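Design request, C-alpha cells follow.
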C-alpha cells in the first residue's frame, strides 16, 4: 500500500507539474476517455506510456471540490483518495490520503 501511495503521489506531482510551471496550458494527448456518470458531469481522460506511467485528466462539474479514488480492486476499502478543490478566494488545493 505504501508503494502504491508513493507511486500515486509521484504520478500526481508529474501530472500537475506542467500546469503550474507553464505559462500556457497545453492539453496532453490522451487516447482514452469516458463519461463516468449518466448526467455527463464527470469526464475522465487517460493514457499511459511504455514505462507504464499513467497520465489522466478529470473534468467535473462541482460546487467547489471533488474526490477521486485509486484501488487495485475497484473498491473503497484500501484505496488511495485524492481530494481537490477551489477555495472561495480562487486558490486550489489537493490532498492525498
Amino acid at each position: 500500500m505504501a508503494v502504491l501511495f508513493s507511486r500515486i503521489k509521484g504520478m500526481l506531482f508529474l501530472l500537475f507539474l506542467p500546469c503550474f510551471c507553464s505559462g500556457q496550458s497545453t492539453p496532453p494527448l490522451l487516447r482514452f476517455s469516458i463519461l463516468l456518470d449518466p448526467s455527463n458531469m464527470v469526464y475522465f481522460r487517460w493514457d499511459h506510456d511504455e514505462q507504464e506511467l499513467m497520465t489522466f485528466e478529470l473534468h467535473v462539474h462541482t460546487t467547489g471540490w471533488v474526490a477521486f479514488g485509486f484501488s487495485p480492486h475497484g473498491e473503497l476499502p484500501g484505496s488511495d483518495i485524492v481530494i481537490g478543490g477551489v477555495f472561495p478566494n480562487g486558490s486550489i488545493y489537493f490532498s492525498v490520503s
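Comment from the thread starter after seeing the answer: thanks! Residues 64-96 form one domain.
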